[in-house]
Amino acid sequence: MLSKFIDTMKIRILILLTATWMIFHSTSSCAQWNKQQLNIDFYSDSIEIPVDHSLFIEFNKPLSDANIKDCYSSVNASQYVETVQSLLKYKQNHNLNDWFYYQLVRKVVQQISPKDDNYYRYTLYKWFVMAKSGYDVHLAIGGQQLLFYIRSDENIYDIPFYVKNNKQYVCLNRHDYIKTDFEKLTVLEVEIAIAKAVNAFSYKISQLPDFKSNTYAEKDIHFDYHENAYEFKIKINPQLNTIFANYPVVDFDSYFNIPLSKETYSSLILTLKSNLQGMSQKEGVEYLMDFTRYAFSYESDQDNYGKEKRLSPELTLLSDHSDCDDRVGLFFYLVKEIYNLPMITLLYPTHVTIAISFDKPVGKPIVYKGRKYSVCEPTPQYESLSIGQISSELRKIPYQVVYEYNPNK
Known about the structure:
This protein has helices at about 1-35, 65-75, 80-95, 100-110, 120-130, 240-245, 250-255, 260-275, 280-295, 300-305, 315-320, 325-340; strands at about 35-40, 45-50, 135-140, 145-150, 160-165, 165-170, 190, 215-225, 230-235, 295-300, 320, 345, 350-355, 365-370, 370-375, 400-405.
C-alpha cells in the first residue's frame, strides 16, 4: 500500500510540475511575442532597443488639447520603461551630449512612428521619450501645428522661444515649420505634468561620436605661405552635415569648442604640426592664419544659406565656402590645440576676428583684463594683414569682447 501511495504522489507531483512549466513557458513566450528589438544604426554602433507592442498606438484624431492628452494617457499606460532605460543606459555608457542623445531618440521614434506617416504622432513620441528621459519639455498647438519645446538655459539665437516661470523654452522642431511666422502665431501650451521631467537641455558638444572609417572622404587642401605652396589631404566626414542640419546658432563658447572627429583630428592636426616644425610660435600662428584665410573660399552666410549659420571647426573644413565666424572658430580651435595660447574674440557690427596673447605683443596691442593681445585676422581682407594689424575699415569702429579663452582656467 505504501509503495502504491508513493507512486501516486510521484505522478501527481509530475503532473503539477508539468502544468507549472507549461504555464510559465506560455507566459514567457507571450511576453517575448509582445516585444521586438529595434536595430538602430547610430554612427559606428549597431544598437538593439527593446520595444513592447503596447507602445505602438494610433493617433488619427484632429489636433486638440484633449486629443493630445488622451494620446499621452495611452502611451503612458504602455510598457515603455525598458525602452527608455535602454536609451539612457546607452547615453550614459557612451557619454552622449544632449544633442546626440536627441538624435538617437529621433532614430528610435522614426522606427516606431515614421515621420512621413503621421507627423503629429512622431512628434508626440519624441516629446514623450524626452520627457521620460528626464528633460523639461512641453507641447504646444499653433494653428494646425504641433510644436515641441524644450527648456534650455543657454543663449540660442535663431529659433523661437518663450519664457515661463523665468525659464526659457526653445522650439526643437522649428525646422519643420520654416514658412511659419512665429511672431504672428498664437501658441497654446498643452499642460501635462510629468514627474521628474525637470532637466534643461544643453547644446554644448564636448565630443563627437565615433564614425566608421568607410564614411570618411578625403579633401585636398591648397594654400600658399611665404611663397611656398602647401598641399595635403585631410579626412572629412559628410555625416556632419546631417548631424548639424538643424543645430541652431549658439554662443561662441559653445561652437568654438565643438571638437573634431578622431580621424579628421589625426589627419589635420598631425599634418599641421609636421609643417610647423622649425617655425617660431609667431611664425606658426601666422601660418595658421594663412591656412584659414586661403584654404577655403569665402562666402557670406546670407549668400550661402540664406540666414545666419555658425559652423563648427569640422564643418568649416567640410564646407567649400565659409565666412568670418566660421574661420574664427576654426582658427581658435587650431591655435588652442597646437599652441594653447590665451585668446579673445572681437565682435564688430559686421565682422568678427580674434586676438592672441603672446609673450611679447606684436603691433598695437588690445588690453583686456590687464593682458595684452595682438589681433590675428583669419579671414581674407582687401589688405595684407600681419599679426598685430587690423583692417583700416575697422580701426575706428567699436567692438565687443564676446569670448575669452584662458588656458589656466
